[in-house]
Prior knowledge:
Elements: H1 3-20, H2 52-62, H3 75-78, H4 125-128, H5 130-134, H6 143-151, H7 154-164, H8 170-181, H9 190-195, H10 203-212, H11 219-222, E1 233-234, H12 248-251, E2 260-261, H13 283-292, H14 311-322, H15 327-333
Helix pairs in contact: 2-7, 2-8, 10-14, 13-14
Amino acid sequence: xxxxxxxxxxxxxxWLFSCSQPKKDxxxxxxxxxxxxxxxxxxxLGVDSITDFKVKIGKRMFFDKNLSSTKELSxxxxxxxxxxFSDTIAISDGVLGRKGFRNAPSLANVAYQPVMFVDGxxxxxxxxxxxxxxxxxxxxxxxxxxxxxxxxxxIYRSWSMxxxxxxxxxxxFTRSIAAYQRTLLSGDAKYDQVVQGDASFTEEEQRGYDLxxxxxxxxxxxxxxxxxxxxxxxxxxLYTTYxxxxxxRITLNEEDRxxxxxxxxxxVALTYPYMHDGSxxxxxxxxSFFDRGGKDHPNKSELIKPxxxxxxxxxxxxxxxxxxxxxxxxxxxxVNY
Length: 337
């Protein structure tokens, strides 16, 4: 090898090493959040302090296809940033074309969810992140193999030493992805600007707003608060017979059959298709369904009943729901992956 080639090789090695190794004096620091007006700081929710390097590690993991058995899927494959971290198909494709279990929900504001999954099957984000990685129909990765990959990756190792003072392990894996997901805060939609006095609804949006919060529709009985959900479990009469038992899968109580966690309506115009199984393609279909009052089922909520809305009233509600889209949130996170 010529001296010139040796020099080029040396420069490349130095560059690679410098990219993967932080400087010795690098210090981690608390992460700066884009916290919407009226929202709590995620560090006040009883979790470990969220720092820049923890978020940095978690974000890299979230988009890392090496964490799937085929090296073709990442978390972002089913939770697409431009779709408010949801998917565009009813049931997401896992490895080898296998289908997942349920419709992929939005991860926006997941920091505030009291429990994970639509049946409440996981009490924390940290516990939840293991499921899609190891599920045979999703990323199908052996957990120990995933941890071993992280521990042997020079970038993960160096960042982890800064953030945690230890090489990547199960603790680093779960806390880092959870830290990143807790940064996905969305609360600066047109609706919020109107509430804060910085914008105005159109006439159609205003009528939709009035209907949404009226006794006529009862929408806000469940879709309440800053996040437009009370996180209760409800059977809305989607089916007379449920192939997915919903909350009952966790509690084993028959009275919970067909009940699913009330979803947040933040960015709802982007999180189609809808329902736990993605069976409703558009907001118009969803509003029409609720207008009809759902199907008969013993566990159906008493709030679900025919509304007798006019065609224009249904359009008005859809118009209002579009005002819950946080364009700044999408722009901030819609990165190539």
